[in-house]
Design brief:
alpha/beta; two-stranded parallel ribbon; 8 strands; globular
Amino acid sequence: MGSFIQLSASDGTQIPAYVAQPETPAKAAVVVIQEIFGVNAHIREVADAYAKEGYLAIAPAMFHRAQANVELGYTDADMGAGMALKTAVESLPAPGAMQDIQAAIDHAHKACGGKVGIVGYCWGGLLTWRAACMLQGLSAAAPYYGGGVTTAAETARQARVPVMAHFAEEDKWIPMDSVEAFKAAHPQVQVFTYAAHHGFNCNHRGAWQAEAAALAKQRTLDFFKTNLA
């Protein structure tokens, strides 16, 4: 359904992004932020699914500043490679890869003429939270099990747009007490938890939990319908 385009970030860097177009004129746009595995088959499928719901969907290649054409699977080796690339991108001088997300938001606005939301998974969930707090042009944000979102440094940020956050109750990376602390610090954020493990939305990995994924997706669609209209 989709194809790759080149985005131009504020520093002039060209960043690839996967774009999925709806069959009818887009009612709004959704920026999709990858896990630590690149814009792989799963992330492209997520973008395609949002396009089927009537949104223009765009998934920027968030590892491009560290390594081009990253597309990993979900083995232990892939996990190690993805973590190393995440560390490399997180170590970039500010604004780092956040300007690549801004470029995706700006492109989405021009391409569809409507409001723009953002959704992200794992590391992408963290970047989605940061985008909601730091970037311009968004109208809603939905981070999924964002590693680091519930740390003190990230909890101290304040979202500029409505946020719906999804967490897994059996997530070994994100303790539930930290989720409760985040929820208390941000009463305006809709926080949902699921009887599932980290990565429950991804049907390409063993952590996939179909019922939790479907419920979170429907909640996110309803959230976007309200805030991107």
